[in-house]
## 1
Amino acid sequence: MNSVTKLIVALLSILSIALLGLTFFIDQNSELNKLIHYYDLGLCAVFLYDFFIQLYKRKKRWRYFFTYGWIDLLSSIPVMSEFSYVRMLRIFRIVRILRSYKILYAYIISNKRSSLYGLIVFISTVILILSTTLVLHIEQDVGNIKTAEDALWWSYITITTVGYGDYYPVTNPGKLAASILILNGIAIFGAIISYITSKVNTIKKRSSLDQ
């Protein structure tokens, strides 16, 4: 797995702990709690993908699995409010973070440019989650963004700068969050295009050297 992916997974592991920690302080039946669990499901999908990729690339797969691979697998299981004991799995995510510190340091030092792309993706993800959560919290009682699903749809069409106009914030803080999210969308797509261009140029240079 390349440095960018490892950096993103490590940072998202920290983010997942922060999000799950918020669930202790909000109403378990609220739309805000539902939104956090939607994001948790998305993060778990990333962790599960990371686990299978690492398992596939390891030469000694069983050794990987029985050392810390099982921790990676358990950390990819989402927390379900219906089964309170499943929340104990958070400890496995903490273990994953402790292991990720060394990965972060090593790859940031040796791959500064790639690490920058990973950092941009992480910051953009944080902005997306914070903006969506803030808008739902502020607009739920005064605007037309009333459910977690409404907030997710609004954030999607906003970050892609499509702007259908079916859901929109009406308060000043909500509008500010929307403005930040639009700028975030422009930045993330610019970074993705730059990263792809960089990879294509690298492949072209290698091909020219081989010829």
## 2
Amino acid sequence: MKLSIDTKLRGKVFVGVGIVSNVINNDYPSELLATINNTIEDVRAKYSLDKLKDDPIIRFYRDFYWHELGIDPTKQRPAQEALLRRILRGEDLPRINPVVDIGNAASIKYLVPIGLYDIDSFSGKDLIIRYARDGETFNPIGSPKRTLSNNQIILSTIDGLILHVYPYRDSEITKIRTETKNVLIITAGVPGIDDERLLDSVQFIIDLTTRYLGGVIHARPVVVRDEGNLSL
């Protein structure tokens, strides 16, 4: 599988990527729940609601929303910030399924948006991050289909199936389900974010899925800024 970034977007977006295969995603080992809970407690000890907006990592994503996407980040918060605010208000992470919950834990730990995709749902086709074309349709998780405009950034297969509106909304078609076996991990970078943070967030997900869910590493973490082949 190859992942490319359209030349118009190189320098504006980049991603950390990895693949885990053969996961067992229909049960929660107690050790996994304990690890996720420890992550929650760690971020509660590290961050506070009133100072979160001043964190430099949060600022980089807010600036990207304002300047590249034309979205007011105080009205539509970056996905990882919204999750972290939920935790800092005393709520728990939503319980979806083990792989998604690991991704959410990584998101609040490293303050980056995490995308997780069922590889079999798009047949492992080559992918590209590009601007949408006016009129393309996208089926977001939990919402009606929507029509996109050409200022929106998307992750799609080479034949046009949209997995993600960058960097905040995933597709119903390619989402992780309990029967998912093969998982593509993408952590979304924006200017100001260092490669190590993206690599560490991917590695965190790989470590937990291989340790607790029986997964096997298929592609180790890499950062893609132009194009890359995803394999061992």
